[in-house]
């Protein structure tokens, strides 16, 4: 919890609990006092608050990094509030410029529709489908038309738009900014007007867009939404944010055995951050588990528990148990008692380079050929991705049936 947040002892038990849940793992909740008043009004009237999350279907699958905000939605949904899962089929045609240093190419309508088909199905593995309102922003954005778009644009100034960090940096660097990119935060903000949102969630990179929603609601005479930003989850490497392009992700539709093994591959340090952002265990339970590890319990026990929880969420408890057993069986299978130990630097290190430096392959090209042939295993898991980069840690690397090395990478 951000140390700048202060809670009041005068809050009712219901509101106090809701505030605590709202703040768990949160980067910012703005303005917190307004959110408390909304919670108090909801308790007094029995009317649920409207909580919005918009996702643009820019790719066909969701990874567990996306579920950080979905988890928060589920926690608020379980308190009885209305959750709106907004699929940005209109805004995707513009392309969100957040965090980019060049214009994002828009997707075609066919690509958007194909991706959107899987989005909600996958999100439903976290959200309660029976209590989720599904909306598409083309519903109100398409009818807006040219006249409506111009009227909307009149409600926000260029000066305020240029306060946005990525626009400001690109402008100063002499990089192009297309006029249509200014329309993205306006259209995302207009979604909040159309949905009469009380709270909008997003990653920390979405803060500017969420604040535009607050401004536009005031322009349209509505009570402005509060905004809640969640941290961007670090991927398997523990360095970069989880991303398919960086190949440090766990897709929520991946096979249970793969998902389980990938969670076990993260560092002991990263594990606790993942517990806070991905686990449904209480903060007290996590703190107790961390204290046990600090007192001498094997951190792998905690990591196995996290891997089972995540695997069970997206598959089943039985699949998680089977994945654990599969991992145990594979970790025992065929590894000699005595194997060479190698210490390497340069983490995160590409798998083909690691094979070469560890003496398991004569060259990186031969290493890539071995990967293509399914002959490379790391901690008994077959490596299929030649772009894999291993973070710092210790691994049992196997090539074929007879070559082994215990590689400590720093």
Automatic annotation (TrEMBL):
Keyword Kinase included in the entry's annotation: no
Keywords attached to this entry: Aminoacyl-tRNA synthetase, ATP-binding, Cytoplasm, Ligase, Nucleotide-binding, Protein biosynthesis, RNA-binding
RNA-binding S4 domain span: 349-410
Reactions the enzyme catalyzes: tRNA(Tyr) + L-tyrosine + ATP = L-tyrosyl-tRNA(Tyr) + AMP + diphosphate + H(+)
ATP-binding in keyword set: yes
Family according to the record: Belongs to the class-I aminoacyl-tRNA synthetase family. TyrS type 2 subfamily.
Subunit structure: Homodimer.
Name of this chain's protein: Tyrosine--tRNA ligase
């Amino acid at each position: 919890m951000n140390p700048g947040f202060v809670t009041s002892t005068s809050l009712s038990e219901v509101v106090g609990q809701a505030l605590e849940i709202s703040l768990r793992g949160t980067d910012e909740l703005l303005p917190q006092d307004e959110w408390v008043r909304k919670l108090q009004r909801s308790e007094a009237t029995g009317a649920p608050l409207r909580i919005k999350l918009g996702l643009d279907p820019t790719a066909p699958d969701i990874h567990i990094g996306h579920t950080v905000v979905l988890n928060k939605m589920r926690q608020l949904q379980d308190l009885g509030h209305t959750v709106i899962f907004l699929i940005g089929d209109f805004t995707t045609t513009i392309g969100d410029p957040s965090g980019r240093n060049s214009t994002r190419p828009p997707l075609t309508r066919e690509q958007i529709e194909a991706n959107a088909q899987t989005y909600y199905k996958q999100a439903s593995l976290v959200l309660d489908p029976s209590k989720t309102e599904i909306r598409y922003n083309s519903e109100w954005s398409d009818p807006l038309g040219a006249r409506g778009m111009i009227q909307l644009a009149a409600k926000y100034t260029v000066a305020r738009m240029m306060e946005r960090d990525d626009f400001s940096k690109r402008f100063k660097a002499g990089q192009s900014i297309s006029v249509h990119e200014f329309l993205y935060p306006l259209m995302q903000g207009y979604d909040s007007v159309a949905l009469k949102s009380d709270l909008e969630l997003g990653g920390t990179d979405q803060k500017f867009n969420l604040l535009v929603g607050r401004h536009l609601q005031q322009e349209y005479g509505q009570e402005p939404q509060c905004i809640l930003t969640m941290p961007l989850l670090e991927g398997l490497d523990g360095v970069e944010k989880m991303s398919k392009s960086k190949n440090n992700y766990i897709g929520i539709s991946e096979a249970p055995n793969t998902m389980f093994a990938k969670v076990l591959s993260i560092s002991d340090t990263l594990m606790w951050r993942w517990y806070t952002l991905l686990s449904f265990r209480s903060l007290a339970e996590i703190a107790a588990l961390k204290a046990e590890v600090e007192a001498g319990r094997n951190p792998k026990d905690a990591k196995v528990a996290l891997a089972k929880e995540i695997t069970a969420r997206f598959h089943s408890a039985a699949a998680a148990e089977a994945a654990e057993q599969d991992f145990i069986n594979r970790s025992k299978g065929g590894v000699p008692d005595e194997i060479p130990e190698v210490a390497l630097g340069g983490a995160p290190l590409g798998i083909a380079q690691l094979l070469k430096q560890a003496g398991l392959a004569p060259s990186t090209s031969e290493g890539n050929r071995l990967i293509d042939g399914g002959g490379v295993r790391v901690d008994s898991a077959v490596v299929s991705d030649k772009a894999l980069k291993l973070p710092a840690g210790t691994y049992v690397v196997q090539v074929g049936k007879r070559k082994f090395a215990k590689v400590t990478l720093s």
